[in-house]
Design a protein that fits this description.
By secondary structure, the protein is an alpha/beta fold. About 20% of the residues lie in helices and about 30% in strands. α1 crosses α6 and α4 packs across α5. It catalyses: adenylyl-molybdopterin + molybdate = Mo-molybdopterin + AMP + H(+).
């Protein structure tokens, strides 16, 4: 395993990270509906019965048979079962959502009906039937949603409608964060040559938005700047995490121990450096575990904005793959101002979207070590290698991560 590598194209890096996650994804598990929000369907969701399962009234009124007038013979409410209508000139009072009795030929809205002195009902049915027939929404066994669908409240409601108590979902990847750098402070303002650690609060929060679980105990740092400390911290984190993110140490300087630590742990690179600015260098490696499955380590640069770009470039696709989700396609937005290129590298430039999400304006304060621009942006516009973007150009846009289960 060599620490030297030709930088991978940014789009190719995203694809490779996603494929690595797909290959390592675990089996589906069945969980109660109450615990499935934000997870991912591990198998297709199919209708367990016809929907609706029985003819269902769409109105409050009367279920009638034969010509008017109709003599009421009973009532059927939602949740009840009415006796069949067997004789012409009969009807039953019916509520919205109730089962339409066998033999009914039409439904009359209560507000469009009347009763004579003898209690008989008259009225004119509307041209379109006022009930839902079995299978109007779905037939038993029909696939409603494919595997890989993010589970949100609408999916939970559909599953409940079908009769599910539990649904098959992918396991949530467990993530950990190791922060490298003796120069970091964990509290108070920066000063005297030391800077505040901003990635411990930032990275876990966005890992959760990408669907991973991150316990407080899984965030550690600063890890001492020695090879022995790095190896020990990574080895411990890998015992309980599927994905370990590290910050800093991705170069080959005198206190950059990540590459030697990976070599000692028997890791192999999935991606070693990506041709993107900011964000250079970053890496994704896999480490064999005792159970025969791979664990992953993502090396994020120490500068905050670069770390975020590594997060969306490598970690987000990896987590999508581990959960059986597709790699999200990037939509196009119109630039309101020019964005320079970065030579042979892809340039990810922070930008804010207008209210309709169609136009993007580059923001200020976008140095690799800065977070001010990130806090005012909605994502990154993508300028391909050896190009520049002008105002009015349509360019790809990579959004910042959303909450689990939320659709862009």
């Amino acid at each position: 395993m060599s620490a030297d590598s030709i930088p991978v194209d940014w789009d190719k890096a995203r694809t490779n990270g996603h494929e690595a996650g797909r290959a390592a994804a675990g089996p589906a598990e069945a969980v109660p509906l109450a615990g499935a929000d934000g997870r991912t369907l591990g198998e297709p969701l199919v209708a367990l019965t016809d929907l609706p399962a029985f003819p269902t009234s769409s109105i409050d009124g009367w279920a009638v048979r034969g010509p008017a007038p109709w003599q009421p013979t009973g009532r059927v409410l939602a949740g009840g079962t009415a006796a069949p209508l067997t004789g012409d000139g009969t009807c039953v009072e019916i509520a919205t959502g109730a089962m339409v009795p066998e033999g009914a030929e039409a439904l009359i809205r209560v507000e469009e009906s009347s009763r004579d002195a003898e209690g008989r009902v008259t009225g004119t049915p509307r041209p379109q039937p006022e009930w839902r027939l079995p299978g109007d929404e779905a037939r038993r066994g029909e696939e409603l949603l494919p595997a890989g669908t993010p589970v949100d409240p609408a999916v939970l409601g559909m599953a409940a409608t079908c009769g599910y108590d539990r649904i098959p979902v992918r396991a949530q990847p467990r993530a950990a964060l190791l922060v490298f750098g003796d120069e970091l402070l964990t509290s108070g303002p920066p000063g005297a040559g030391r800077v505040r650690d901003s990635l411990s609060p930032l990275v876990p929060a966005w890992l959760r938005r990408y669907g991973a679980t991150v316990s407080p105990a899984a965030v550690r740092g600063p890890v001492q700047d020695t090879l022995e400390a790095h190896v020990a911290a990574i080895r411990e984190a890998l015992t309980s995490a599927d994905v370990v993110c590290t910050t800093g140490g991705t170069m080959n300087g005198p206190v950059d121990h990540l590459h030697p630590a990976l070599a000692e742990l028997g890791a192999e690179y999935v991606i070693n450096t990506v041709a993107v600015r900011p964000g250079f260098p970053m890496l994704l490696a896999r480490v064999p575990a005792a159970d025969g499955r791979y664990r992953f380590l993502a090396g994020l640069p120490g500068n905050p904005q670069s770390a975020v770009i590594a997060l969306i470039t490598l970690v987000a696709p990896l987590l999508a793959g581990l959960q059986g989700r597709e790699l999200p396609a990037l939509r196009k937005v119109e630039l309101t101002a020019p964005v320079p290129g970065r030579g042979g590298f892809t340039h990810l430039a922070l930008a804010a979207l207008d209210p309709d999400g169609r136009r993007a304006t580059p923001v200020g304060h976008v140095g690799s070590a800065m977070l001010r621009g990130l806090a005012t942006a909605d994502g990154f516009v993508v300028v391909r290698p050896d190009t520049a973007a002008a105002a009015g150009d349509l360019v790809p846009f990579h959004p910042l991560p959303l909450y689990p289960g939320e659709r862009p």
